Amino acid sequence: MASIITGATRAAHSATATILSATQIQTGEQIHTKPVKEDDPVKHVTLDLAGKNIIVGIPGAFTPTCSSQVPQYIEDYDKFKEKGVNDIYVVSINDVYVMKAWKKNLAPGGTGVRFIADDGGKFVGSLGLVFDATDVLGGPRAKRFVIVSQDSKVSFIAVEEDASKSTITESSKVLALL
Predict the structure, then answer these.
(1) Which residues contact 20 (CB under 8 A, 6 or more apart)?
(2) Which helix (H) or strand (E) holds 174?
(3) pTM tops 0.85, yes or no
């Protein structure tokens, strides 16, 4: 019985990832924001993408690669601001409690980097940037990506081929583009 349930769960996660992962957004396309959560588990917010913004998609809070990639964005926050960036959003298909705890863990003194919980995967799914991470993370997750947006349109996008690695989505690579 357990193997039937496990198989059904895996199939459901795979189907969900397929449904959520529409065609991947491209440079020049409009970003249609969906409700996400930042600090409150019942209050939805919509990302304000007016001006220049950075969206960093990560597969999972507290995972090794994400926990080494995101601190660079925290450290470089002022450099991004000097280059005219309004906000840096770190987005993950995690719940708001996990994202708040991870932010506190990475930046105990606070940070301007905003940690966003896309707990249902609707926002990341609308970007076409979801993959099935059931075997490692228990379900659909965000691909590792970075989007630079200008007035809600994609001006640059980088998506790691291997979500377990952070190469083209590093803070220093994005800073060099601005």
Answers:
(1) 121, 122, 124, 125, 130, 140
(2) helix 171-177
(3) yes
Judged against a pLDDT cut of 90, whether residue 16 lies above it is answered with no
State the catalytic residue, choosing from 17, 47, 66, 88: 66
Kindly tell me the burial class for residue 95, based on how many C-beta atoms sit within 10 Å of its own C-beta (0-12, 13-18, 19 or more): middle
For residue 23, count other CB atoms closer than 10 A to its CB.
Answer: 8
Where are the chain's structural domains? 30-176
Is 66 among the residues known to form the active site?
Answer: yes
CB 129 within 8 Å of CB 21:
yes
Please state which CATH class domain 30-176 belongs to: alpha beta
CA distances from 24 to 126, 131, 175 (A): 8, 11, 23
Q: How far apart are the first and last CA of the chain?
A: 54
* Chain segment 64-98, per-residue pLDDT in tens: 999 999 999 999 999 999 999 999 999 999 999 99
